[in-house]
């Protein structure tokens, strides 16, 4: 093997870390996926196993995890992406590939019960991320992954109190952007 064909040792270590973490944390990911799938009412068309597999595939494509905490951050993002991708696919079929309805035409149900609202939330979170990425990561951990304040603090490397403040700020910003449809519920205690 030529020197240029060799895989650097640290890359091999990262690959081994990923191979070790995924099976260990898969059960936890499955529990969180089940909880989130029920909460966003993706029920009939997206089973827990499918959500876990989608998140798992996104995680497997990622490289460079720096341990369990980094993996958990990536898992929260993968869960958000899998749920939003599913909602977008359903909308494309439902609307014949057309655009999204405006919030005014969707009705009065909470956003997480509607694919349209879930996509609107994702778009708002992309805008929020440009302003303050930590607030977005708190939403991903608390809302999409269902982490507790303590788990979110540990995963993001911040204090519980900072998580509480950021959760309030992020929810207020989303409410300002999306009106009552942006009012995120408190995550169930885990």
From TrEMBL:
Coiled coil: none annotated. Residues 17-178 form the RNA polymerase sigma-70 ECF-like HTH domain. Transmembrane segments: none annotated. GO terms for molecular function: DNA-binding transcription factor activity. This is RNA polymerase sigma factor (TIGR02999 family). SUPFAM superfamilies: Sigma3 and sigma4 domains of RNA polymerase sigma factors. It comes from Tahibacter aquaticus. GO terms for biological process: DNA-templated transcription initiation. InterPro entries: HTH_Sigma70_ECF-like, RNA_pol_sigma-70_dom, RNA_pol_sigma70_ECF-like, RNA_pol_sigma_r3/r4-like, WH-like_DNA-bd_sf.
């Amino acid at each position: 093997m030529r020197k240029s064909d060799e895989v650097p040792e640290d890359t091999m270590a990262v690959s081994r870390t990923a191979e070790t973490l995924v099976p260990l944390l898969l059960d936890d990911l499955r529990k969180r996926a089940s909880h989130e799938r029920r909460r966003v009412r993706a029920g009939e068309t997206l089973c827990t196993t499918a959500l876990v597999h989608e998140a798992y595939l996104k995680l497997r494509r990622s490289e460079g995890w720096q341990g369990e905490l980094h993996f958990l951050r990536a898992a929260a993002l993968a869960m958000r992406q899998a749920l939003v991708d599913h909602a977008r696919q359903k909308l494309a079929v439902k609307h014949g590939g057309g655009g999204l309805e405006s919030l005014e035409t969707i009705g009065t149900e909470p956003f997480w019960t509607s694919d349209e609202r879930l996509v609107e939330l994702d778009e708002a979170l992309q805008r929020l991320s440009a302003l303050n990425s930590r607030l977005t990561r708190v939403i991903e951990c608390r809302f999409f992954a269902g982490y507790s304040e303590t788990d979110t603090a540990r995963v993001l490397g911040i204090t519980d109190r900072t998580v509480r403040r950021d959760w309030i700020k992020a929810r207020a910003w989303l409410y300002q952007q999306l009106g009552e449809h942006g009012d995120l519920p408190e995550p169930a205690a885990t």
